[in-house]
Amino acid sequence: MKILVENSTWNNIGDGFYQTSILNLFRKVFTESKVDELEGPLHRAFKPKRFSDRGFHLNLIQEADVYILSGPILSSAFANEYGELIKIFKARNSKYAILSAHGNGSCLERNKEILRSHPPIAFATRDTPTFEMYKDCCQQSYDGVCAASLVSKTCQTADVDKSAKYITVSFYDAYEPEISIDKDLNAFIPKGDHFDKDPKWKFRRHTEFLKDYPKFVDDYEIVRPVHDIGYGLSHLNYAKTNSFLSYNPLSYLSLYRGTSLTISNRIHAVLPTLSYGKPAMYFGKEKRDALFSRLGLKSHVNTKLTLSDDFIESEYEAYLSFIRNIQW
User: Fold this and answer.
1) What confidence score (pLDDT) does residue 289 get?
2) What is the pLDDT of residues 78-135, one digit of tens each?
3) What pLDDT was estimated at residue 193?
4) What are phi and psi of 270, to 5 degrees?
5) CA 195, CA 282: separation in Å to the nearest integer?
6) What is the pLDDT of residue 194?
7) Boundaries of every domain in the chain
8) Which fold has domain 2-144?
9) What is the 3-state secondary structure (H, E, C) of 176-231?
10) Measured between alpha carbons, how far is 47 from 44 in angstroms, rounded to an integer?
11) How many angstroms separate the CA atoms of 106 and 143, rounded?
12) Under 8 Å between Cβ of 146 and 239
């Protein structure tokens, strides 16, 4: 059996965490099959808009028995990004599955109609509200976790020097807040429980390189992973001291694996940190907070979060079991 797993549609490097994780889940299960990477829809990653007719769609000539769509957002953009591709898969008499999906409730009936008319062979979500909205669109549905929370089990990364004493700080859509930590590695920011995005950030971000961000907080060096890697402008890429950029998601995972604490308003900075058994503090205000609830973290803002290895292992085994038991 030939299986192609979507692993390209990265709006930022965090998308690479869960897509690479899903790819490796399939390689773990299907050791006797050919499991390769599918080029995802260009509309999702590159937003060509009026130039979309100039794009070449490699996925239209990539052949497989089963196509795995990784982490699509079931929103108003789903029909444009995935609708035609799904129809083509079905017209080929190929099967497809959707894993680690998230829905925000918009265009719900239109998206459900696409899935009912061209049903996937399997459907897994990364939060329970999405599962409840879409579970009836497929007979083999699974209320799963975000695959980014499984990277400690699915992704092999380079070791970092255990004597390196650093924390990882990643904020976007506004200036990084002033951060302090106590002896127990609890972090504090001026506004307390959340971090507000700047509505004028599209313009103000061009001045961020003028700010003097600290390199240390107490005895910990501050490393700043930049998840938005496509700017092409050095004053944005390296606006902050100790900015880290790479086109390799495994390099970021190596960094989060070795951190003492992650402080961020990015869900996909926090989840891999937790997967590696390290603490993290989340200061975001996103509707995707349900991802945390699915991990059993009911109170997750402005509090130090941790997950046990036993919990991660149980979710990893449950995901593998779901994939194994699909009637392919």
Assistant:
1) 79
2) 999 999 999 999 999 999 999 999 998 889 999 999 999 999 999 999 999 999 999 9
3) 59
4) -75, -45
5) 9
6) 66
7) 2-144, 166-307
8) Rossmann fold (3.40.50)
9) CCCCEECCCCCEECCCCCCCCCCCCHHHHHHHHHHCCCCCEECCEEEEEECCCCCC
10) 6
11) 20
12) no
